[in-house]
Design goal:
Helix content is about 45%, strand content about 15%. By secondary structure, it is α+β, with helices and mostly antiparallel strands. Among the domains are: about 125-235, no CATH class; about 260-275 and about 285-460 and about 515-550, no CATH class; about 465-505, no CATH class. The strands form five sheets. Strands 4-9-5-8 form a four-stranded antiparallel β-sheet, with helices on both faces. The protein has a three-stranded antiparallel β-sheet with strand order 3-14-13, with no helix packed on it. It has a three-stranded antiparallel β-sheet with strand order 10-12-11. The two termini are about 45 Å apart. InterPro entries: DNA/RNA_pol_sf.
Length: about 575
């Protein structure tokens, strides 16, 4: 055992030496020196022509004749050789080192994949590459990222004549109340030196040119991705919300029934309630053997955080209403618990619910049927999860079924709205999910994620909040600012100058041309998943040995490791 410890220490010491060599090499790479043109070889002079000026001195690394990649590979071989020598002295550590080798191989393969993705991304920067075709690969790589510039430092034209890059403190921004990071400032220094920049004005020209060209390439690639995926050009849309909505309609061929009954519209609006956010336990501190601050004299406790992956995406894949809306005539004999989740007919009900007192303690952390109300001492409505009885509560039938399974009692059914439903969003959500899985970079992954989220945002659009904006240049007259402000639908104004004012006017006619019923059902169905996880998974595992903070954080004092593992294996 003593020999194994000595071998391990020896191995670690040699590996630290190799790491030190690599760090030293990195520092050497950062140190550059300039060569006069007459001391350069022809090859160096050609590589030194930056931005069309061949007389500027090139910057040459102080390293030896072999390339940086070859140097790194040789250092890597040295590290491997050290490890191979030490492996001959090991006995029981072979299996552990084998695992480390596998992890290293996986990391190397991931790095190779990342490098391939980088090459693939370089090919997409066609505009930037066409403008800087004369640059070497290393120099072009410096322009492939967002640059930094001392915006607030340059407050007069004379500062553009500075012959040195301003210090890091000069990059301070009042918007972020901070200066740039050290690696960003090091990048700026590297650009200044590699491109042999003489003044801050030249640096500004390069910064602006690359900034605009990068944006051009990003937008062009964004358009190409959207056209290839959906057959629509996003340049014809104001926002991604409008684009993804049309893409969904084009893909699904769905025809929505627009609501013409104002009672149905207001009925649905009363049922729209957002996501619940609360803190049931104000303070909790973990104490277990996996922590450095573990106190064995105190009971063990754990903090756990859970997040439902793609919660609204899951809800949007469920059956949702889209047509044939009508009021149910006979509500006295309506049996809500016999309706299947995938029934061709869906229902939204207005009910009176009783919250039995014997359930209050069990449901105190996350009670059913949250309501919009004003908390004590507050003026703004919040979504509150209370244990009060509910009066004329508008709820989706699947939520109501869940409530009755957990003990709430239906007192009265006032109204029932019936509609035809189907999982009409399922194929579009799955389409974007497949696109996201096949995406080769973070940009495309985020794009297809937003395409799903934006569909939900479009269903929740409140057309009551739309305004007409009038730009007025005079005060008097029929179409002047005074006449606009005097109208009953005047909302607000913004003064830009003495002869220009923007006036917001409420619409005289509101067109309810959005399927708000889909939004209401998506929000309610998502709560089915949330409440199912809490009441049907977490509560049976921990019983009364936990406290929930909000919807996803749990504090479990006195819990065992087995209980903790059980809770981590469940999914919604």
């Amino acid at each position: 055992m003593k020999k194994m410890r000595t071998t391990t220490r020896s191995l670690h010491e040699k590996l630290r030496q190799v790491v030190k060599v690599i760090e030293t090499s990195k520092k050497m790479l950062k140190n550059r020196r300039r060569l006069p043109m007459d001391e350069m070889s022809t090859e160096q002079q050609i590589s030194g022509r930056r931005l069309g000026n061949p007389r500027k001195a090139a910057v040459v690394p102080i390293l030896g004749p072999f390339p940086v990649r070859e140097f790194a590979f040789r250092v890597f071989l040295c590290a491997k050789r050290v490890r191979f020598v030490e492996e001959e002295e090991r006995d029981d550590e072979e299996s552990e080192e084998g695992k480390e080798d596998e992890e290293n191989e996986e990391e190397e393969s991931e790095e190779e994949e990342e490098s391939e993705d980088d090459i693939h991304d370089k090919d997409k920067l066609t505009t930037l590459r066409s403008e800087f075709a004369h640059l070497s690969t290393d120099d072009f790589d410096l322009l492939m990222r967002k640059g930094v510039f001392p915006y607030e430092y340059v407050d007069c034209a004379e500062k553009l004549e500075d012959t040195r890059l301003p210090p890091c403190e000069s990059f301070y921004s009042s918007l972020t109340s901070n200066t740039v990071f050290e690696n960003d400032y090091a990048h700026a220094i590297n650009v200044w030196q590699r491109f042999a920049i003489l003044t801050l004005g030249e640096y500004s020209d390069l910064y602006l040119k690359t900034d605009v060209l990068l944006l051009v390439d990003v937008f062009e690639n964004f358009c190409d991705s959207c056209i290839n995926s959906y057959g629509l050009d996003p340049a014809y849309y104001y926002t991604l919300l409008g684009f993804t909505w049309d893409a969904m309609l084009k893909h699904m061929h769905i025809k929505f029934e627009l609501l013409t009954d104002i009672d149905i519209v207001m009925f649905i609006e009363r049922g729209i309630r957002g996501g619940l956010s609360q803190c049931s336990h104000r303070y909790a501190q973990a104490n277990n053997k996996y922590m450095q601050s573990y106190d064995p004299s105190e009971p063990s406790s754990y903090l756990m955080y859970f997040d439902v992956n793609n919660l609204y995406g899951w809800a949007m894949c469920q059956p949702l209403p889209y047509t044939d809306f009508r009021w149910v005539d006979d509500t006295s004999n309506f049996e809500v618990n016999v309706i299947a989740p995938d029934s061709p007919k869906g229902y939204v009900l207005e009910v009176d619910l009783e919250y039995p007192r014997h359930l209050h303690d069990a449901h105190a952390d996350l009670s059913f049927c949250p309501t919009r109300d004003k908390p004590l001492g507050k003026r703004q409505d919040k979504l509150l999860a209370t244990l009060y009885d509910k009066k004329r509560y508008v709820i989706h039938y699947r939520n109501l079924q869940q409530c009755t399974r957990h003990g709430l009692r239906i007192i009265t059914i006032h109204r029932v709205l019936e509609s035809t439903q189907s999982p009409w969003l399922h194929d579009y959500i799955e389409l974007n999910t497949r696109f996201r899985v096949a995406a080769k970079n973070d940009f495309e992954k985020n794009l297809y994620k937003l395409m799903n989220n934006a569909v939900f945002s479009k269903t929740i659009e409140n057309v009551r909040n739309h305004f007409d904006v009038k730009l007025v240049t005079k005060w008097d007259g029929r179409y002047g600012a005074e006449a606009m402000i005097a109208k009953p639908n005047f909302h607000s104004r913004s003064v830009f100058s003495s002869n220009l004012i923007a006036i917001e006017m409420r619409k005289l006619e509101v067109k309810f041309n959005k399927p708000i019923y889909a939004d209401m059902c998506i929000l309610d169905i998502s709560k089915v998943c949330l409440y199912e996880f809490h009441h049907e998974y977490m509560v049976p595992v921990y019983h009364d040995r936990y406290t929930a903070s909000g919807n996803r954080e749990y504090w479990a004092p006195g819990a065992t490791r087995t209980d903790r593992d059980k809770s981590q294996t469940v999914t919604c």
